[in-house]
Each structure stands twice: as C-alpha cells, then as structure tokens.
Amino acid sequence: MQSGKPFIEFSNVTLRIRDKPVFSDTSWQIRENEHWAVLGPNGAGKSVLVRSIWGGTPLRSGRIYFQFDGGREEAHPTTQKNSIGYMSFELHQHLLEREELQQDLRVYAGKHNVTTTAEDIILSAPSEGGAAPGPRRDKMMGIAAELDITHLLGRDMESLSTGEMRKVLIARALVKSPQLLILDEPFDGLDQSFRASFAEYVNRLLAGKTRVILVTHHLEEILPNITHVLLVKNCALYRKGPKETVLTSENMSDLYGCPVVVKNEDGAFSASYGHSGDSRPCPPAVEVSCAKPLAEVPDPLIEFRDVVVQYGDRVILDHVNWKMRRGENWAILGPNGAGKSTIVGLIAGDHLQAYRNDIMLFGEQRGSGESIWQIKERIGIVSSDLQLRYRKNMDSYDIIASGFYDSIGLYRFPTPEQRRAVDRWVELLGIGKLTGLNFHHLSYGQKRLILLARAMVKSPVLLLLDEPCHGLDIPSREKIHEVIDTIGRVQAHVLYVTHHPEDMPRCITHVMRLENGKVVSQGKRT
Prior knowledge:
alpha/beta, globular
C-alpha cells in the first residue's frame, strides 16, 4: 500500500518531440517519500521524459500536477523550473553554445579579457524568488567546499575538462536548494574519488526534503536511498515500482533484449551481460581492415620527451616522458584534471601547445612540416569533447562518412568504396535504425555510437578513445568492447582513456597513470 502524499503526478500525459507524439497517455506518480531511478536502452526516451518535468519537453496533452508547497497545483512545468535542479550532458552542450555566442559578442565589443568562470556558471542557475547575491554566493561556497571544487571557481569555462565541468554543473543544480533534483547520468566523466564522495553527498540529500530523480545506465549508481525504479522502452513506461521488485534479471533482460544478470547484495545492485555463471563472453570474430600492415607502422608510434603544458602558473602536464611502441595498446588512467584528455589533444593536433613540445608521432617530429590533415588521416578519435563540438544539423549517415575527411560536417560525396565501409560499420555496430535520423535528434548514447562508427570507418592506424562508453547501455557497451578488443588484437593501435580501470578492454597491454599532470606509473598491464 502506498504511503505519503503525491509530490508530482503525470495524468494522461502525451509529450511531443517536434511533430511526433511520445509517451502517449502516460500516468506516473512520485510521492513525497519516494526517490526514483530511471533506466532504459539508448534512445528509449529517458531524458525526454524527465525534461518534461521542468518544461524542456513540451506537453501535447494531459496535465502534470505539482505539490511542491503542500497544495496540489496544476501548472505548466516551466513555472516550477526555479524549484527544480537539473544537470545533464545536454545542459553542458547548451552552456558551451551560449559561451561561444558570448565570446563573439565580447570580441565585437572589444572586451577581450572577459571570460565566463566556473563561479559564473554556478550562480547563473535560476532560483525560486531570486535569492540575494550574498547568501547565494555563501551557499555556493559551502557546496563547493563539500564537493571539493573550490579550486575550480575562478577557472575559465574553456579551461575546464569534461569531468570538471560536470562537477560545476552539479554544484549549479544544488545551489538553488531545489525541491526536486534531476540528475541525468551525473556520474559519467567523474573520477572514482569524486564519484564516491558525490554519491555519499546525494544519498544524504535523499534523507532530507529534496526529492531526487536519477537517470542512469548503471545499476551500480542506484544509491541506497533510491526507493523506486522506472523502466522506459520505446518512449513508453515499461515497468515501475519499488526497486527490489523491478530490478530483476528477467525484467532487465526483457528491457534490453539481451541476457542480463542482476545481483542484489545488501541493497547494492549490479548488472552484468550474459547468463548467470558466465564470465564475460569472448568477443566474436570480427574482420577489421587496417590502414597499414603492422610491419609498416613506425616504431615507436608515439613518443613524448619532457612534455610540458601550462597556462600561466597552472601546469597541466608536468615533464611527461612516455613512449608507445608498435604493437602496444595503452590505457591512460587518472582523476579529473590529471591531464589525460590533454595528451589526447596533443596527439590529435587539436592542442596548440603540441607544436612547442618535443613529440614524435608516426616516426616524425611534430611540427616538422606535416599538415594537421596528414596527422588526422591516420587517427580515429572518440571523445566527449568531440561530441560536444559536433553540433552539425545533418544526417547521421553523413556524420559517419565525415570520418574519412576528419571534418565537422560532410563537404564531399563519399565514394562507393567509402559507402561500403560506412555500411559495414553500421552493420557491425547495429546502428542501421539511426543512420537515417538527424544527429541532433538522437540521444546522448546514440550519438556516441555514431561517432564511434565515424572514428572506425577509415580503419585508422591509431584509435584514440576518451571514455568511449559514456552514455551507453548494457548491450551497446558490450558490443563496443567486442569491437575494440578485436581492433586491438589486429593491426590497429588503441589508446584508451578512462576513469574506470575495470572497464579496460582485454586488448590493453600497457597502462599509464597520471595525477596532477605527472606520470606516477607506466608499464605493462598487470
């Protein structure tokens, strides 16, 4: 029997994505003593559903009722926005787009030294009643201290790593003291230490007055004080109820359409791909064509000699010496801000300080006359930074084909041979249903799969993967691991950046660990 008063109620709601109705005639009730986790496959509509609560997805019909202040109120969700804290990848992208526009306006106005800081981002969150600047800043400082991000407050937005930016967005959601906190994949991009401390912080919030909705692909991220789970599939509610009754192997296998084993150890849930008793299944044989036979790849493939990257007094990489030899596959581990993505940028040629350092790439000195395109034609890359920057309004198939030209957009027609390569990777990754859709209309995880195909389509000598499994559901993660394992076992080379040591593909042979820009260990994988 349910207890507690209703907090939010969906009454015969139908949502609208452009001209398409979704979640037709949906009814869902969140009571005042409940906290919910929302799970489902990539593209199931999880983010679409939770965005409707604050007005980010329009209602086509039905009503959403709010009881934030003790009385049942029928109102448009946007009128409740100031009472709701929200963070997501889409918000990160929106703020980046806004910052680019602000930068253009500053240039026109001659304000070249004006920037947006992490503190500005946090304080930009709308608040109920318009909190006074003084108390609001005091609140921010308290949250920053508790989350251990005080050192980020004065940093320019553009200098923040993806993980650091996610921490700032979490603080932004919390600073308004929301009655409802919606966290859409909040743990992606966070290092292990912060994930643990943030989980404890949110779990304490759950014991107070703030209600929480957590969107996640990982059962391990469902906090102890989460009481209920909603499963979403094909833009419709699939299962809902107390987490102990919903989170079963049978329900999760039905949800994802593949064998999933759910374990519950004293309220801590986890899920693994495969049948009960299976170890992680071996990847199937996948034929991967390569740009060059292994014997023709220069050795070493990459060499950093006393590499330093710094901005003023802030050092990003501190005298890094590292060599990646032919036939090796490396993983780079380390906390947020350690310098992992900077190394990726230096290799890809996207970082300006690549040309003031002693870096060898494919047997040639960086800056010795090669063009950026000569470098990129041998490299495939997947990263959150690329996904944030790839905002072209175009067909997903064309985005995959743009990988042949390393362009943000497609400006040449792919050849018949290139189209066959695109079709092959589309089939291999099982993303045929996505290729006819506009990239902007895909979910975060679906976009990641498209960009993976884009990176792989030209069979690169070197594949740079910066947290490639962010936002991917259970079967998609398994498929990507299969593909990466296969690529790493044949004549391509993999550089894999992650916060999750347990997530490294089998093909990884060597590991480098960074902290505060310094190499603390490197060598063969143990």
